[in-house]
């Protein structure tokens, strides 16, 4: 199933996507007998100077269109918007903060014989004082294709995948997911329910941008609130949900809530500091999530 026409879709939010777009353009231009377009949609970024610099830098490249959206519509809606703007039958989604470490990255996707394929991502170098880097590095073994294939829908992410446009037109991203987290997990669930398979291939993009600890902790909390909001629909698709649901004794959950109320602020200071602990991170997430049942 040779793919000869491709729309490359890149949603961005405060991302400097110039190197990413430049490398994709270089690879696309080197492929013969191939039609493509690259659409970048900025989803109401707050860093307007960066947005304008990116737009100016990439708009001169062939077949590239940079769209600036004035308001933030959310992670699901911006991807649906890009689909509506795309003209070709195959869609390649990439996050704006990724890099391309492989000279055959595009060609590998064009050669892939699958209606839906996820390429994974590699973790770049970072500092041990950075919580996001430490977390991603610890999870790195799970990113291997053989591990992803064991739970293909749960290990699907929107950061680097190709899909038939017809499929995503019929099964768009759920725009109830406006805040950070789990729109990709729920999309994987939708694909499974519709009877599709996700092929997990070895064609990673690079992940080398790590936000500061305080920002990552805040994003994690936002993701946990999203998980709590859609918990009934994400059963079986979240390890944290499975863990929490496995705690059958109410007294245990009460103890965890008490622990979080007493020590959550101390744990958070550790996570935002220079020596963040992954063990503390796990405890903090469990406590924060279980406490949401009281807050709501």
Description:
The chain is an alpha/beta fold and 296 residues long. 46% of the residues lie in helices and 16% in strands. It is built from 12 helices and 10 strands. A 7-stranded mixed beta sheet has the order 3-2-1-4-8-6-9, sandwiched between helices. It has a 3-stranded mixed beta sheet with strand order 5-10-7. Strand 2, helix 2 and strand 3 form a beta-alpha-beta unit. Helix 9 packs across helix 12. The longest helix has 23 residues. It is globular and about 65 Å long. The N and C termini lie far apart (49 Å). The mean pLDDT is 93.
In short:
46% of the residues lie in helices and 16% in strands. It has 296 residues and is of the alpha/beta class.
Task: Specify the number of helices.
Answer: 12
Q: Which percent bin holds the helix content?
A: 40-55%
- Class per helix and strand makeup: alpha/beta
C-alpha-based Rg, rounded: 20 Å
Span between termini: 49 Å
Q: Spatial order of the strands in the main sheet?
A: 3-2-1-4-8-6-9
Strand content: 15-25%
Sum up the overall morphology in one term. globular
Query: Which consecutive residue ranges, at least 5 long each, have pLDDT under 50?
Result: none
Largest sheet at a glance? 7 strands, mixed
Number of DSSP strand runs: 10
Q: What is the quaternary state of this protein?
A: single chain
Features:
single chain; 296 residues; three-stranded mixed β-sheet; 12 helices; 10 strands
List the SSEs and their pairings.
Blueprint: E1 5-12, H1 18-30, E2 35-43, H2 48-58, E3 64-69, H3 75-85, E4 90-94, E5 98-99, H4 105-111, E6 116-118, E7 121-123, H5 131-139, H6 145-148, E8 160-164, H7 165-170, H8 183-193, E9 199-200, E10 205-207, H9 213-229, H10 239-245, H11 250-272, H12 278-295
Parallel strand pairs: 1-2, 1-4, 2-3, 6-9, 7-10
Antiparallel strand pairs: 4-8, 5-10, 6-8
């Amino acid at each position: 199933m040779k793919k000869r026409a491709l729309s490359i879709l890149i949603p961005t939010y405060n991302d400097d996507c110039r190197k990413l777009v430049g490398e994709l353009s270089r690879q696309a231009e080197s492929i013969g007998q191939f039609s493509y377009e690259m659409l970048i949609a900025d989803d109401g970024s707050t860093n307007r100077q960066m947005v304008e610099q990116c737009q100016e830098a990439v708009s001169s490249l062939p077949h590239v269109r940079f769209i600036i959206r004035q308001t933030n519509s959310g992670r699901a809606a911006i991807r649906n918007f890009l689909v509506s703007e795309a003209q070709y039958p195959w869609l390649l989604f990439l996050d704006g903060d990724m890099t391309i470490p492989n000279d055959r990255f595009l060609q590998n996707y064009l050669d892939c014989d699958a209606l839906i394929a996820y390429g994974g991502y590699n973790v770049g170098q970072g500092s041990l004082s950075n919580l996001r880097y430490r977390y991603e590095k610890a999870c790195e073994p799970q990113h291997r294709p053989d591990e992803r294939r064991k739970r293909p829908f749960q290990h699907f992410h929107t950061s680097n995948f190709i899909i038939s446009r017809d499929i995503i037109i019929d099964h768009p991203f759920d725009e109830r997911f406006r805040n950070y987290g789990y729109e990709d997990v729920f999309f994987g669930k939708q694909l499974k329910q519709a009877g599709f398979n996700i092929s997990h291939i070895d064609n990673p993009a690079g992940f080398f941008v790590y936000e500061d600890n305080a920002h990552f902790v805040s994003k994690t909390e936002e993701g946990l609130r999203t998980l709590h909001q859609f918990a009934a629909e994400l059963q079986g698709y979240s390890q944290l949900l499975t863990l929490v649901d496995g705690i059958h004794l109410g007294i245990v959950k009460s103890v965890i809530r008490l622990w979080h109320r007493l020590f959550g602020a101390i744990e958070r200071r550790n996570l935002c500091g220079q020596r963040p602990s992954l063990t503390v991170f796990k405890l903090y997430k469990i406590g924060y999530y279980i406490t949401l049942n009281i807050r709501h």
